[in-house]
Amino acid sequence: MPDVPPGPQSPPHAPADRTSGGRPTSTPPTPRLLPWAGPDGKPCYLLTDRDDSLLSERADQVEALQLRMGAGLLEHARVLIDDPSVDSRQLRFLSAQLSAALGDVLRVAQSRGARSCHHEEPSDQGF
User: Fold this and answer.
1) HSE of 24 in the Cβ direction (CA atoms, 13 Å)?
2) 10 contacts: CB under 8 Å, gap ≥ 6
3) Model confidence over 111-125: pLDDT tens digits?
């Protein structure tokens, strides 16, 4: 094998900036909290230097869907709450769905807030 002089390489912990010809960025990318949890229920993060990556775009789509579903559920809740014929079983189910939607919305808010500030660290309280 011919000897090849080593070329410039990015350290494994610092991804290359695609807009600067592959040179390492001066500031590392901020982890983005994704709008879904892993199989063990723990938060998932994306570490990229591109806001337009396929996974970033998918996360944006999921966030938008979660917000629309939350808004729709809120409208449904208003109707059920005003209906005197709704029983406690239906209200328990509604409260479980509202709780899940609120968790989704808080995750979206945390992710967007962290991306706008770039200095917040993920909270261990889930919001």
Assistant:
1) 10
2) 16, 22, 23, 24
3) 988 777 754 455 555
Helix axes 54-82, 88-117, angle to 10 degrees: 150
CA distance 10 to 16: 6
Q: Tell me, what amino acid is at 19?
A: T
- Rounded Cα distance between 89 and 27, Å, is 52
Using one digit for the tens of pLDDT, what is the confidence trace for 86-116? 999 999 999 999 999 999 999 999 998 877 7
Alpha-carbon distance of 61 to 75, in angstroms, equals: 21
Beta-sheet strands, E only, within 1-127: 32-37, 43-46
- Report the SS3 class of residue 126: coil
CA atoms within 13 Å, Cβ hemisphere of 21: 1
Residue 17 and residue 24 in contact, taking contact as beta carbons nearer than 8 Å: yes
- Global confidence as pTM: 0.65
Q: How confident is the model at residue 10 (pLDDT cuts 50, 70, 90)?
A: very low
